[in-house]
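Blinded run. Sample ID left blank on purpose so nobody reads anything into the name before looking at the predicted structure. Input follows.
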Amino acid sequence: MPISIPSDTTSKEQLLQARAFITQNAVTWCLGSLTRCFLPLPYIKELATHANIKAFCDQDMGLRKERLPANSRDFFINKVFKHGQRCFVATLLANGNMLFLWNLMNRYDDVDLPIGKDLAIADEFQAGLDAFLKFQDWVLVPVLRLGEYDQQIPSFGSLPLISITARDDPDAYDVEFSSGHLTSSDSATPGARYAGRTKFVLTAFKDRINVENHGAWGQRRLGIVCKDKYFLCSSQGS
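Blinded prediction complete.
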């Protein structure tokens, strides 16, 4: 269910409601010592609506004290909605400070994520930045396209998984992907829930060279490159 943040409640109450929504819909998967948490893209879009962004901005004391012209505030709300939905949700996870988000988005938006630790920001926003950096991975899980076999991801932890379970083969896992992070169509809206199969066998290889000789290649659905590893997702045994 989409979430509607009232514009006439306090910032604290708004933040509690938003974080409850995030907690309810966040995904956590574990493999050995690796634990990965993220909010699937469909829920990012349900939370970061124009109305919800406006509700937070209406109640944010920092923005109100700045006495910003109405057109400037409206421009900012539209900018966040169009270009900063992930930044908005990461800010809610961090501290909910919309004035911090205003300053951040003077230079950065979603396409610039992840933001590095060397970002220079005013001292009053340093604590907000530190918190933002801790949570930005929650909103950075990529959408993967079925039928493509050389898709780049920054790390194994970036995989948009709901679950992962080891198989007898030490290099293979039963995995289930978040339906909002798979697509089979060039025209699909990013974050639209994919209605097809989301469970596959993921097999790890040292490189791409010998993958085609593996039995899983004949049932291939998706190939992923991560640093010096290659991962093939197949329907074999799933």
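Unblinding after everyone has recorded impressions. Residues 11-139 form one domain.
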